[in-house]
Amino acid sequence: MTAPTPHTPPFRDPQLPFAKRIDDLLARLTPAEKVAFLHQFGPAVERLGVAAFRTGQEALHGVAWMGPATVFPQAVGLGATWNPDLVRRVGEAVSKEARAMRARDDRVGLNVWSPTVNLLRHPLWGRNEEGYSEDPKLTSAIATAYTHGLRGDHPTYWRTAPVLKHWLAHNNETGRDVTSSSVRPRVLHEYDLRAFRETVEAGGVAGVMPAYNLVNGRPNHVSPYLREQLRTWTDEELLVCSDAGAPSNLVDSEHYFDTHEEATAAALQAGVDSFTDHGTDSSKIVARVEGALERGLLTEADIDAAVRRQLSVRFRLGEFDPHDDPHAGTGEFDTPAHRELAREAAEQAIVLLRNDGVLPLAADTRIAVVGVLADECKLDWYSGTLIHRSTPLEGLYERFGAERVEFAEGVDRVLLKTSAGTFLKVPEAPEAADEVRGAEGALDPALLAGRTDLPPLTSDVTGTELALVDWGEGVLTLRAPDGRYVSVAEDGFLRASADQPGGWIVQETFRLEPHANGHLLRHLGTDRHVCVAADGVRVAGGDGDGTEGEAEVFEVVVVERGEDAVARVTDRADVVVVVAGNDPHINGRETEDRTTLALPAHQERILAAARASGTRTVLALVSAYPYAVEPGRLGAVLWTAHGGQAGGTALARVLAGDVSPAGRLPQTWYADDADLPDLLDYDVIGARQTYLYFEGRPLFPFGHGLSYASFSYADLTVDVGDGRARISFTVANTGDMTADEVAQLYTRAVDPSVTRPRRELLDHRRVTLAPGATAEVSFDVPLSAFAFWDVARGGRRVEPGPYDLLVGGSSEDVRLRRTIVLDGEAATARPALRRGISAADFDEQSGTAIVDLTKVAGDAVTPVGGGSGELVYRACDFGPGTTGVTVTVAGEGTVEVSLGGATATAVLTVPTPTSGPYDYVTVEAPFTAAGVHDLRLGLRGPLRLAHVGFSG
Fold first, then answer.
1. Which of 135, 177, 192, 243 is the catalytic position?
2. Which among 728, 731, 708 has a CA at the least distance from the CA of 718?
3. Is 573 within 8 Å of 366 (Cβ atoms)?
4. Residue 333: HSE in the Cβ half-sphere, 13 Å Cα cutoff
5. What is 323-392 written as a DSSP string?
6. What one-character DSSP code corresponds to residue 191?
7. Which stretch of DSSP H or E encloses residue 103?
8. % pLDDT > 90, the chain
9. Which is nearest to 784 in space by CA: 26, 212, 201?
């Protein structure tokens, strides 16, 4: 007798559409099982054979946190390539390695949290390294390429499922979970939403992650834009994953809700589908959701909607169809092709900023390589562990021969002398195994502990010479002769134990504080002073644990200054290459913004010593962000982001002329801190931020980058019709070596009625040309690309009139130009009498911020700090005439109403302060106006203005 064939449930049937399969699986899950899925670490449902699932795998420029993997250049470096095809191939390699790594370690996830599409609005943002560009068009082009690489080309099954970070208007680490970005409608639609929208619409995105900050007074994790904007851009189910700890912030730090049940319910209803909170412990989120259900704040339909979106991603990843998943057998990991791609990406990311002819270097050049980054291959928080590495020094040794290259790091070599006359000593530890932080992988690397298997520092009469580097603002590191950095572990002792500074809270940084006739040494990770105890050198306690100790007063004995070491090697060199920049874990990183564009003083000293030698000097900046440097006395200046495993080889090949540099700046390099707006000013239009609006003279403009070749542009043709502009031109290599050129197309409205960009990127193309070769470059631009957000109509509009088309090698290097005239749509006056005016739809403002109208949706406007603010609304149509004005306000204060620049003709004062910020009242006053006029409002006091209406 034959046993019956087991019934295959519909959710296991690959012949059915995903939607029907998800319906079936949802119906089989119990309410408790569905609630459990809402946490980042969703448990298995063994009775259905459904595996556990984790949302989130960092993969910004390689698989991160899970041990060894191919490390590509930082994201800002990938942006500097201006090469979507290259970035797509990088995405493919990263996703293939994720699949290969998961096959041997199921902790590796396939729902990857990358790329970051936050625009690089402000160069002091600590996470500048994570974004691609200050420009939304370039950002979306690079992000689209990366997501398509991560997704793969199969029409049904995805290799990995990319989640875009961080929704929305997120460019500050300072108070990042409590500050609100005031984003006017034009900035919202023309700038911040645009990079997300164009990337989502391109079809390779599985979801987004809301940011920690608030936008217009409302936390991003309850943003109405998730529903009103994001989910309207695609027919795909998009998975919204919270950032780590952000759901709890809604109550704990932001105080936006009174209870966690209310906060969790609001986030879920706004569109958050997966809650990343409390690490692997899902119990708190589960309890909050269950509590919200019991209180009637949520329905089972709300839970089903979120679980459906999660399951959609899991089905697309092939989890339920292992035999049909074309990516299941992917085993490509650390392949020769991936290594070659890492080198190619690092080469293409290098930007030549200045060159007086010193580069490329001749093969017989004698080179002095100096600088604190010359023999470093730095990683950032979102890097994997290096399998291969190359430093600039190693690359130059390999390319030019060790006999032609001399090296001086330029660190200060010091002894730290105690008040007892002894010196800090690093004990020998011959039995200690070499360890690299994170080599074994960790779901949360913030939990990795420091080493305690090495002996603590002591003191004796001879001491140990330490390499001291000041990374700026007095933040320094101390390194032992064996290359290990002095660090502090959980037991409080100082040990030479870290391969590099790193960790969520860096334990390898210190500050020397003048005290009496010496210095106190403060450990920044614990914010405690260093003391010398009988059992070793440690940080002083302070918690009554018996380890209080007395802070030691040290004398810093300089054995050798960095400048002296530099002078020793420059005397014998033809060229000095100074490698300067940042450590990605110090002074500018997640949780910490920079305070200045200036190069750290220690590195300025090294650069000055190189210049003073009289030897021709090349500055190679290896950094996650722009610096303000004085290039005039330098033979050449290059910039590259931290280039991953092949960064050193790539830099050496560019210096040698094996490849011509063709990276282009993805953001403006400003000349001085004074050129920068406040970090928290998100109004790129009003504050004249980025190349789009900046009216000063940059140090280096957006799109800038030089070559060892030269290029000519010619034969510009433009054809406008059928809703498109077709632009073509030729680019010729007039130099004597094969090189890439990045041809860039910009536009500007010649006579706009509102403030429009000085330049705006429409498209670009990176082309490779042999000497004497010519290529035709064509762009097909929809006329909608010339539109702006018209606040009067609440939508995009192409304004009639002339537009310049600008073609060239950067935003300022214009070689060809043509003016076209577009019919567009004529402006219409605001129907002020008929519809009134929403307060946030202003044309101009000063002294105000946009805040939340309610906790669910809508905007209001308030004076900053409860002071005074001004709003201007252009071309308001009051029809045949008005007799009164009504304002909808909350709080207390006065609204002054006037036409044009006249004095106030109506003053409306809230008679009694309202009980809360969302308790709006209407206040009326007589007001006469007829025809079309500019309307001006003065806001006085801590009030919120929602709407202005008129009667007549």
1. 243
2. 728
3. yes
4. 18
5. TT-TTTT----S-HHHHHHHHHHHHHT-EEEEESS--SPPTT--EEEESTTTT-----TT--B-SS---H
6. I
7. helix 84-104
8. 94
9. 201
Q: Angle of helix 136-151 relative to helix 193-201, nearest 10 degrees?
A: 40
Residues 6+ positions from 36 with CB-CB distance below 8 Å? 42, 43, 282, 286
Each residue's pLDDT tens digit, 677-686: 999 999 999 9
- Based on its alpha-carbon atoms, the radius of gyration of the chain, rounded to whole angstroms, reads 30
Q: Which residue bears the tokens 């609304």?
A: 873
Q: Determine the Cα–Cα distance for residues 603 and 580; give it in Å rounded to an integer.
A: 7
Residues 687 and 316: their CA atoms lie apart, in Å, by 43
The mean predicted confidence, pLDDT, of the chain is 96
Q: In this structure, is the dihedral angle defined by the CA atoms of residues 667, 668, 671 and 672, taken in order, positive or negative?
A: negative
- Clarify whether 243 is annotated catalytic: yes
d(CA 207, CA 526): 37
Q: Report how far residue 366's alpha carbon sits from residue 377's, in angstroms, rounded to the nearest whole number.
A: 23
How many residues in total does the chain contain? 952
544 band by pLDDT with thresholds 50, 70 and 90: very low
- CA distances 654 to 361, 615, 658, Å, are 9, 20, 6
Per-residue pLDDT band for 6 (boundaries 50, 70, 90) equals low
Tokens of 751: 């006579």
Show Cβ contacts of residue 514 under 8 Å, excluding neighbours closer than 6 positions: none
What letter does residue 589 receive in the DSSP assignment?
A: B
> What pLDDT does 429 receive?
80
Q: What is the pLDDT of residues 291-315, one digit of tens each?
A: 999 999 999 999 999 999 999 999 9
8 Å CB contact between 85 and 102:
no
Q: Is the model's pLDDT at 515 over the cut of 50?
A: yes
**Phi-psi map region of 152: left, alpha, beta (phi>0 left; psi -120 to 50 alpha):** left
According to the model, what pLDDT value does residue 546 have?
A: 46
C-alpha pair distances (Å), 318 with each of 18, 149, 326, 772: 11, 17, 8, 50
Where would I find the beta strands (DSSP E) of 97-203? 112-113, 163-167, 180-181
* C-alpha 197: how far from chain center: 17
The answer to whether 156 and 315 have CB atoms below 8 angstroms apart is: no
- Indicate whether 193 pLDDT > 90: yes
| Residue 469 reports pLDDT greater than 70 | yes
Q: Decide: helix, strand or coil at residue 314.
A: helix
Distance CA 149, CA 160 (A): 9
| pLDDT grade for 897, boundaries at 50, 70 and 90 | very high
Whether the Cβ atoms of residue 512 and residue 520 lie closer than 8 Å to each other:
yes
* pLDDT tens-digit series, residues 245-268: 999 999 999 999 999 999 999 999
Structure tokens belonging to residue 578 = 């100074």
Q: Which run of H or of E encompasses 25?
A: helix 18-28
**Residue 696 CB partners (closer than 8 Å, separation 6+):** 670, 671, 675
pLDDT at 449: 72
Q: Which of 575-579, 704-708, 899-903 has the lowest mean pLDDT?
A: 899-903
Helices first, then strands: H and E counts in the chain: 19, 48
In the predicted structure, residue 282 carries a pLDDT above the cut 70: yes
Q: Are strands 724-733 and 711-721 parallel, antiparallel or unpaired?
A: antiparallel
d(CA 841, CA 935): 12
Q: How crowded is the C-beta side of 594, counted as CA atoms within 13 Å? A: 28
671 Rama sector, left if φ>0, alpha if ψ -120 to 50, beta otherwise = alpha
Q: What is the pLDDT of residue 5?
A: 54
In this prediction, residue 1 carries a pLDDT of 46
Cβ neighbours for 926, distance < 8 A, ≥ 6 positions apart: 883, 884, 885, 906
Query: Kindly report the CA angle at 262 between 258 and 268, in degrees rounded to 5?
Result: 140
